[in-house]
Amino acid sequence: MNNQLRVLVILLGAVLVALTYTFPLWQPYLGLIPGRGETAILGLPPEVSEQINLLPPGQIAALRDLAEEDPELARSLAIAQISRDIFVDEEEPTELGQQRVILGDFVPADDVLQAEGQLTIYETANGDFILRLNELNVTNIDGLSIYFSGQRAPLNREELQQDENYYRLIDLRGNAGNQNYNIAPEVDLDSYNSVVIYSEALDIVVGYAAFTTRL
């Protein structure tokens, strides 16, 4: 090996060592490289992009795809994914004589979004109904509301309101936790097939829970 080649090998080794030990310093700026991270696509600062890059790979890929169609919505959803949860923790209803009449599990309406948890609708001894959201965890978007829909799996507002068979129950108090909501007497549960979490601010369905069991 001649001297010039030996010097080149030594220099390359030194560069690799330096890059390895300084990785924590320059890693956040990977997002500035085209095709890496979310900053180049979503126009977000490196510190935000770094947090977004910790999301599941499928969610990141979905955000990238959405950014090509609607960059502003993609940015809003990306920031919502890393926003601090609004947690509500209410005890399960304990009214005398209550019974579970409807069950369901939440799923996200899109790969970009997050929605999980269970719903239970209770009937009390006096004939009232209570919606229980248990271990709820949905993307923390502004303007979240609870709807009943005649559709089992609505993915957008048009499907949610199809045939005008829907009912807006109330604003969601928090995007995470355990929550109870009284159901107005005029709501005919036999007319509906799902509970839907809908963002009126962004006009998107975040998630839904089809009624999988009627007891």
Describe the 3D structure.
By secondary structure, the chain is an alpha+beta fold. It has 7 helices and 10 strands. The protein has helices at 3-21, 23-26, 39-42, 46-52, 57-69, 71-81, 157-160; strands spanning 87-89, 99-108, 115-123, 129-138, 144-149, 166-171, 176-183, 194-199, 204-210, 213-214. Strands 1, 2, 3, 4, 5, 6, 7, 8, 9 and 10 form a 10-stranded mixed β-sheet that branches. It is elongated and about 95 Å long. The model is unreliable at 23-40 (pLDDT under 50).
Give a short overview.
This protein has 215 residues and is of the alpha+beta class. The chain has helices at residues 3-21, 23-26, 39-42, 46-52, 57-69, 71-81, 157-160, and strands at 87-89, 99-108, 115-123, 129-138, 144-149, 166-171, 176-183, 194-199, 204-210, 213-214. It is elongated, with a radius of gyration of 24 Å.
Element order: H for helix, E for strand: HHHHHHEEEEEHEEEEE
Helix content: 25-40%
- Poorly predicted regions are 23-40
Shape: elongated
Q: Give the CA-CA distance, first to last residue.
A: 81 Å
What's the gyration radius in Å? 24 Å
* Tally of alpha and pi helices: 7
- The averaged pLDDT comes out at 85
Q: Decide which structural class fits the backbone.
A: alpha+beta
Strand content: 25-35%
Record field, number of beta strands: 10
Largest sheet: 10 strands, mixed
